[in-house]
């Protein structure tokens, strides 16, 4: 009980510090502090937002029912959720395939057995679901035909009747035209009126037939929920089967240890051949063996080369945004400090800031791409790139390439301005008294900089960094989309070009992922900002 | 032999055409280990005078010398205690003092420095809060931390710029006693600026009034010939204290009257006009009229 009491204020302080203030009434309520006040706050800050979210989902659902265009329709919340689980399943399958690729020995054999059993189990399901799709489709088609048949009958009948009427009107008009005598204005007027009447009647009749036709088409276009359900079940089963078959490939033909073993067998055979050869042939075969051996070494340490999952792309995007952000900050903070300290330098920098600040990422990106690929014309030969692919800590998992560097540079170029401006402001607006303290103490330039100027400007610098990171995250998605740097932006672009039935839904999933990560980054920066700010508040945690 | 000397000092701001003379013709000489109080009204240029003494500001003309040498810029040998504490808000009390100690005694070891810092913290009775940040301290505690930082510089001269003006009466007397205590045990030169006559009489050896600005200058000094230590409780009955207090107060009030007299010409006579009618014009019919004004097109419709 005492322990609970002692952690109450640390909990509340932590909540306040991380900006999750909506949780503090819950904690206070748990401690029984002014229940009425806390419940009012909970209603205001938790219940009301939840209701707002529910209203949003409902409105979204309604909108998705009504927004249909030629290129697609707005995915409903449910479809979005299904797309999310499809993305997740895909990632899971890739992970399992990778595991299978790396398996060897008895583990591989037993896994192969299990997988084959699973295939045997799922094959009938695929068949039955395919059958079910066929039968539901047929049943539905029958139902539709039954509904259409009377309408079609009616359409045919009306069409025939109208054609008959039109023919008889035409004949009557022909007769009338024969009977006309030039100069008889009244007769001509009557004739013209009859022709007009015929035209309008014909149009009317055509419209009626067209209306019937479109009614029939509408019925044909109706999507059956049963068919959709059957199709979904079939797709699920088929996808799982496909995955299992591919996994078998990874356990046999494509398996790493298997590849190594077969290569070894091949090499020993080659060696046997070599021992029978002399002269030029021997030389040729020996070289072949040497090459194979080098390849074998690579195979032994090779990684699974599968498709990139959205989670991998998200991690790579985050890595890219931080790379760009750190790069931008490394430029912006020193320049900002110099600007704040020296008005002449500030005057020199102002034109650059003013002109480059509004430039869109779309413009920076090609320039960055050209520069990045000019610096690394052949990534395979570059020592730095090879180091990053093979040895660099966790970077080696992320396949750093010129497109990545260009995206990061674009992020840096677009995001550094907020930090630059805030740093300059923070340094320029140092309390005069604090500078007087430095003068009285006769601090040198560096200790003045690190003991007075930077600590005093830090809260504003961090406010700038927070804006920069937010801008960088927004810019990055566009940059990746254009540069095809493996990341969330590329995922969106691939989905846009893919045109599968759930592509749109996957893009909507991305909207939420991007938003959520953006929120997270912002929260992290808020915590940092609070850590360095010194006046009042929860700065002491 | 004067320790700190100001000779014919003038300070002014702005271009020659619209120049504001803040201080003019200041002559001050402070002897070693002397406690001098400069008393003046707010806005008289007291803080400018202090900036001069600290070297934060150079005079427009005249000379400021310390130990016979002309003063060049500020330095830790003149411990300036700022009116608004000027503690660095991102550092704890300990670290604020450490900043000064690091600068003045770079040769000391880490533990020697810590001992020194704790010594000063104890001296101002802040030993319960060395790790507190300035915003967690009361005004009096902040001022004491500021005093400790100033003392830790081990300056040859202490410059106190209205150190106690922002404090309540109780805290004020407490810190007055502390400053006096420290001064009496460890005699050094002190120049204090204040606007409180009692404070000046209680603490100083000499009291020098600063006349009203602009063109403020130092008036004739009052010497305080009272034995130390002075006890604030019995002081109120001390005839010398009473005499000095009333004399200085009278002098300051005369100064005030005088400056008011100088400003009398500024009063501009207002014309003697009596407004005829304060009643509001009736609003509604006028509004209606505006809408139906003849000859205006009704474009709004």
UniProtKB/TrEMBL annotation, chain A:
Return the SUPFAM superfamilies for the record: MetI-like
Sorted alphabetically, the keyword list is: Cell membrane, Coiled coil, Membrane, Transmembrane, Transmembrane helix, Transport
Record-linked InterPro entries: MetI-like, MetI-like_sf
- Ranges in coiled-coil conformation: 202-261
> GO terms for CC?
plasma membrane
**Gene3D superfamilies per the UniProt record, alphabetical:** MetI-like
Question: What Gene Ontology biological process does one annotation of this record name?
Answer: transmembrane transport
Where the record annotates domain ABC transmembrane type-1, the positions are 314-525
Q: From the record, give the transmembrane residue ranges.
A: 42-60, 321-341, 362-378, 403-428, 449-476, 503-521
> How is this protein situated with respect to the membrane?
Multi-pass membrane protein
Q: Which family does it belong to?
A: Belongs to the binding-protein-dependent transport system permease family.
- Which named protein is this? ABC transporter permease subunit
Organism the protein comes from: Haloferula rosea
Where is the protein found, in the record's own terms?
A: Cell membrane
From TrEMBL, chain B:
**Which UniProt keywords are given for this protein, alphabetically ordered?**
ATP-binding, Cell membrane, Membrane, Nucleotide-binding, Transport
MF terms in GO? ATP binding; ATP hydrolysis activity; nitrate transmembrane transporter activity
Question: Which locations, inside or outside the cell, does it occupy?
Answer: Cell membrane
Topology in membrane: Peripheral membrane protein
Recorded superkingdom: Bacteria
**Alphabetized InterPro entries for the sequence:** AAA+_ATPase (IPR003593), ABC_transporter-like_ATP-bd (IPR003439), ABC_transporter-like_CS (IPR017871), ABC_transporter_ATP-bind (IPR050166), NO3_transporter_ATP-bd-like (IPR005890), P-loop_NTPase (IPR027417)
Quote the Gene3D superfamilies the UniProt record gives: P-loop containing nucleotide triphosphate hydrolases
Q: Where is the ABC transporter domain?
A: 4-237
Gene Ontology CC annotations of this record: plasma membrane
Q: Where is this region: Disordered?
A: 265-301
Q: SMART domains of this UniProt entry?
A: AAA (SM00382)
Instruction: Output the PROSITE patterns linked to this UniProt entry.
Output: ABC_TRANSPORTER_1 (PS00211), ABC_TRANSPORTER_2 (PS50893)
Cite a single Pfam family from the UniProt record: ABC_tran
PANTHER family (UniProt xref): ALIPHATIC SULFONATES IMPORT ATP-BINDING PROTEIN SSUB, TAURINE IMPORT ATP-BINDING PROTEIN-RELATED
Q: Under which name does UniProt file this protein? A: ABC transporter ATP-binding protein
């Amino acid at each position: 009980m005492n322990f609970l009491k002692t952690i109450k204020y640390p909990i509340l302080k932590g909540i306040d510090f991380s900006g999750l203030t909506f949780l503090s009434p819950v904690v206070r309520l748990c401690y029984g502090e002014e229940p009425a006040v806390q419940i009012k706050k909970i209603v205001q800050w938790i219940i009301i937002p939840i209701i707002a979210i529910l209203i949003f989902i409902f409105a979204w659902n309604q909108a998705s029912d009504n927004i249909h265009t030629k290129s697609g329709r707005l995915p409903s919340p449910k479809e979005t959720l299904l797309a999310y689980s499809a993305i997740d399943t895909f990632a899971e399958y890739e992970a399992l395939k990778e595991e299978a690729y790396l398996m060897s020995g008895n583990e591989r054999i037993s896994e192969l057995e299990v997988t084959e059993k699973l295939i045997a189990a799922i094959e009938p399901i695929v068949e039955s679901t395919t059958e079910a799709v066929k039968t539901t489709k047929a049943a539905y088609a029958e139902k539709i035909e039954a509904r259409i048949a009377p309408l079609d009958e009616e359409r045919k009948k009306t069409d025939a009747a109208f054609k008959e009427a039109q023919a008889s009107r035409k004949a009557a008009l022909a007769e009338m035209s024969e009977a006309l005598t030039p100069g008889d204005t009244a007769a001509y007027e009557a004739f013209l009126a009859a022709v007009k009447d015929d035209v309008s009647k014909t149009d009317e009749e055509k419209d009626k037939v067209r209306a019937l036709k479109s009614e029939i088409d509408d019925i044909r276009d109706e999507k059956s929920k049963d068919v959709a359900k059957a199709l979904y079940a079939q797709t699920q089963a088929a996808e799982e089967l496909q995955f299992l078959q591919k996994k078998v490939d990874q356990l046999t033909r494509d398996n790493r240890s298997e590849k190594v073993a077969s290569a070894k067998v091949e090499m020993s055979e080659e060696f046997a051949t070599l021992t029978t050869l002399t002269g030029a042939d021997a030389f040729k075969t020996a070289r072949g063996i040497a090459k194979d051996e080098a390849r074998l070494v690579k195979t032994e340490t090779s990684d699974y080369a599968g498709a990139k999952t959205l989670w991998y792309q998200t991690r790579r995007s985050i890595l890219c945004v931080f790379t760009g952000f750190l790069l931008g900050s490394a430029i912006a903070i020193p320049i900002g400090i110099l600007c704040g300290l020296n008005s002449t330098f500030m005057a020199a920098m102002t034109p650059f800031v003013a002109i480059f600040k509004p430039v869109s990422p779309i413009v920076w990106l090609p320039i960055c791409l050209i520069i990045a690929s000019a610096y690394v014309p052949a990534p395979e030969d570059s020592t730095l790139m090879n180091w990053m692919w093979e040895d660099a800590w966790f970077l080696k998992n992320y396949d750093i390439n010129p497109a990545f560097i260009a995206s990061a540079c674009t992020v840096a170029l677009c995001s550094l301005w907020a930090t630059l401006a805030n740093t300059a402001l923070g340094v320029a607006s140092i309390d005069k008294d604090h500078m007087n303290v430095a003068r009285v103490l006769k601090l040198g330039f560096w200790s003045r900089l690190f003991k007075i100027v930077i600590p005093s400007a830090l809260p504003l610098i961090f406010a700038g960094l927070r804006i920069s990171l937010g801008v960088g995250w927004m810019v990055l998605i566009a940059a990746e989309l254009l540069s095809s740097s493996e990341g969330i932006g590329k995922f969106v672009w691939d989905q846009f070009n893919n045109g599968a039935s759930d592509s749109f839904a996957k893009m909507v999933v991305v909207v939420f992922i991007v938003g959520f990560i953006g929120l997270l980054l912002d929260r992290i920066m808020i915590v940092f900002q609070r850590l360095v700010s010194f006046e009042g508040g929860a700065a002491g945690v | 032999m004067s320790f700190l000397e100001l000779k014919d000092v003038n300070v002014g701001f702005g271009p020659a055409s619209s120049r504001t003379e803040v201080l003019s013709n200041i002559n001050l000489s402070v002897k070693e280990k002397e406690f001098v109080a400069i008393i003046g009204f707010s806005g008289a240029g007291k803080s400018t005078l202090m900036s001069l003494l600290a070297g934060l500001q150079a005079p427009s003309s005249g000379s400021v010398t310390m130990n016979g040498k002309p003063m060049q810029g500020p330095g830790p040998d003149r411990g300036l205690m700022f009116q608004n504490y000027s503690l660095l808000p991102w550092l704890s009390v300990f670290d604020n003092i450490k900043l000064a100690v690091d600068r003045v005694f770079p040769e000391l070891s880490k533990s020697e420095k810590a001992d020194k810092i704790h010594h000063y913290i104890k001296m101002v009775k802040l030993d319960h809060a060395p790790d507190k940040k300035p915003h967690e301290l009361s005004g009096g505690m902040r001022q004491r931390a500021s005093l400790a930082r100033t003392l830790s510089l081990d300056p040859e001269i202490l410059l106190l710029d209205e150190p106690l003006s922002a404090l309540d009466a109780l805290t004020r007397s407490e810190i007055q006693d502390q400053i006096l205590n420290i001064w009496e045990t460890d005699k050094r030169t002190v120049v204090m600026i204040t606007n409180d006559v009692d404070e000046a009489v209680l603490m100083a050896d000499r009291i020098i009034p600063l006349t009203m600005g602009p063109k403020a200058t130092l008036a004739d000094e009052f010497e305080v010939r009272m034995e130390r230590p002075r006890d604030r409780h019995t002081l109120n009955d001390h005839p010398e204290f009473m005499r000095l207090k009333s004399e200085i107060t009278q002098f300051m009030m005369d100064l005030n009257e005088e400056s008011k007299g100088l400003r009398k010409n500024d009063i501009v006579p207002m014309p003697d006009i009596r407004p005829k009618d304060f009643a509001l014009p009736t609003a509604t019919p006028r509004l209606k009229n505006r809408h139906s004004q003849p000859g205006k097109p009704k474009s709004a419709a």
